[in-house]
């Protein structure tokens, strides 16, 4: 294997990747179906076929050497690029089990703000210079081996995962979790327990995790090797804010979800055994039925973050205690547990030192809060999910920094740089009530003020800068735009990415998975998402290409 870019791809590109992907997908769907039917013998047989399949090894090699977003981070072997012939050699060398190579520990500074916060909360201190954070990088061989095993194991666990687990799973994202929160509280305000997992995942009880996995032979031996080598990165819990996590090449993300699986079942079993009573309606004071008790509580999880929602405060306190004990038993610990109410707490609630004085809560970068409404809203309440204030502030600071750095840049260059940042932020936070409450319009106006100052510095006159840098396009009077080779290049507006979470966004079905064989549903869902994201994703990729050429 050589640490150089490939010069020829003829043999590698001659492979029919669509045929290989179709073959592996068929096997994965059979694994999913067999797991649902309880046929463990067939599941293990199909997993063995995948692990030993040359097609699966080729696909795993392709993902880690070409499609993986982290392909430029070399492990201890120092290899970043492989020639086509070396890719074939790597594919042939893959084997389960294999001894894992030592991990290369590096200190990087390009985590998102959310990721940095989570790393510090997990006890992962800053590194050299107090500005960098640790990341353990496996070798290219280990990355490919992890991907190979994940191809076999993921369909089985997708059939077992709880319906309200949304993090680090195929076909699910942050917006699905936020939509589920909205559907849980929009009819009635509830008490909230919002918490995170503190202890780094490399402290998990390995024996209990291996017992939960319930594998024997080669798979058991391989996972045990990886656990001992420290497979869990500090980045496992870091929320992939403003971007899509690379789920193909890191088995640790799958093991995270496996370790935290059964958390929802735990609290559901707890609430079923409690003698709860109806608090509203014609049945007020009567004991709840089994079905109503089960549906009265919701636990929504995204990787290491979760919220528990229930209308009874005592249930929330009991859930906190039970979850904390359950986590300690597997080597983890509850952190930053916050108790609050989505609308407003009572005087007794506010007197409790554990209870938040501010209504609502923050989750995945969004603020969830309810307000009393006399003429609008369901049952006299209105639910709003908006970008958190600290996320708005940090984004504006980033925009201001770019504008300052581009004081000598051309209009074309500053447009490309800003479009990249704006599209990523607005694509994530625009799917909310941000447009309804005026946040996106406010962001557009603040950006306009910064650019107007930038233009004035260039032309020494506000009027001249408006005439030179702003154009009238269709119904919009002021658009920051320029022409390049006869083509109009304009700055994105935040409001262009507005999408209502409650009305426009369709949440993924709770019990479904990309491996369930429902191709009509997934094709329809992907098509709808592509119609919304195609322009913005294309703009991001175009901006990246333009920036490389500048």
Automatic annotation (TrEMBL):
CDD domains: RT_G2_intron. InterPro entries: DNA/RNA_pol_sf, GrpII_Intron_Splice-Mob/Def, Mat_intron_G2, RT_dom, RVT_N. Residues 100-368 form the Reverse transcriptase domain. Keywords: Chloroplast, Nucleotidyltransferase, Plastid, RNA-directed DNA polymerase, Transferase. One of its GO terms (molecular function) is RNA-directed DNA polymerase activity. It comes from the Eukaryota. This is Putative reverse transcriptase and intron maturase.
């Amino acid at each position: 294997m050589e640490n150089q870019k490939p010069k020829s791809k003829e043999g590698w590109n001659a492979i029919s990747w669509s045929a290989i992907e179709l073959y592996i997908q068929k096997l994965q769907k059979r694994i999913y179906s067999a797991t649902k039917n309880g046929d463990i013998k067939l599941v293990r047989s199909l997993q063995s076929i995948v692990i030993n399949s040359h097609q699966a090894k080729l696909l795993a090699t392709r993902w880690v050497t070409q499609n993986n977003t982290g392909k430029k981070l070399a492990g201890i072997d120092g290899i970043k690029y492989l020639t086509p012939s070396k890719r074939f050699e790597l594919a042939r060398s893959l084997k389960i089990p294999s001894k894992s190579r030592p991990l290369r520990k590096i200190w990087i500074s390009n985590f998102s703000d959310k990721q940095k916060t989570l790393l510090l909360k997990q006890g992962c201190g800053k590194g050299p210079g107090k500005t960098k954070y640790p990341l353990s990088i496996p070798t290219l061989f280990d990355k490919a081996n992890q991907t190979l095993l994940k191809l076999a194991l993921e369909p089985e666990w997708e059939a077992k995962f709880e319906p309200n687990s949304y993090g680090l799973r195929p076909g699910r994202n942050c917006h699905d979790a936020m939509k589920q929160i909205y559907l849980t509280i929009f009819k009635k305000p509830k008490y909230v327990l919002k918490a995170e997992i503190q202890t780094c995942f490399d402290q998990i009880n390995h024996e209990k995790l291996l017992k939960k996995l319930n594998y024997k032979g080669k798979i058991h031996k391989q996972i045990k090797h990886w656990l001992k080598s420290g497979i869990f990165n500090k980045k496992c819990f870091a929320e992939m804010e403003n971007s899509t996590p690379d789920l193909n090449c890191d088995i640790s993300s799958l093991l995270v979800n496996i370790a935290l699986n059964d958390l929802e079942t735990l609290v559901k079993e707890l609430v079923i055994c409690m003698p709860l009573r109806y608090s509203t309606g014609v049945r007020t004071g009567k004991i709840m039925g089994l079905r109503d008790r089960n549906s009265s509580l919701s636990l929504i999880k995204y990787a290491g973050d979760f919220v528990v929602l229930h209308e009874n405060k005592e249930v929330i306190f009991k859930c906190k205690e039970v979850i904390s004990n359950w986590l300690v038993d597997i080597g983890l610990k509850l952190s930053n547990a916050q108790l609050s109410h989505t609308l407003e707490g009572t005087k007794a609630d506010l007197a409790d030192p554990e209870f938040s004085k501010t209504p609502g809560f923050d989750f995945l970068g969004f603020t969830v809060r309810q307000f009393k409404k006399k003429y609008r809203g369901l049952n006299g309440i209105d639910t709003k999910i908006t970008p958190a204030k600290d996320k708005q502030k940090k984004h504006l600071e980033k925009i201001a920094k770019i504008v300052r750095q581009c004081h000598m840049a051309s209009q074309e260059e500053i447009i490309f740089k800003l479009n990249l940042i704006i599209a990523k932020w607005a694509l994530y936070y625009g799917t909310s009530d941000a447009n309804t409450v005026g946040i996106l319009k406010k962001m557009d106006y603040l950006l306009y003020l910064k650019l107007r100052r930038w233009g004035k510095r260039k032309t020494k006159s506000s009027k001249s800068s408006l005439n030179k840098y702003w154009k009238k396009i269709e119904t919009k009077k002021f658009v920051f735009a320029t022409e390049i080779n006869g083509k109009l290049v304009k700055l994105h507006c935040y409001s262009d990415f507005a999408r209502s979470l409650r009305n426009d966004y369709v949440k993924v079905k709770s019990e479904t998975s990309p491996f369930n064989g429902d191709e009509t549903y997934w094709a329809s869902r992907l098509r709808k998402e592509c119609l919304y994201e195609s322009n913005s994703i294309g703009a991001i990729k175009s901006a990246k290409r333009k920036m490389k050429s500048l």
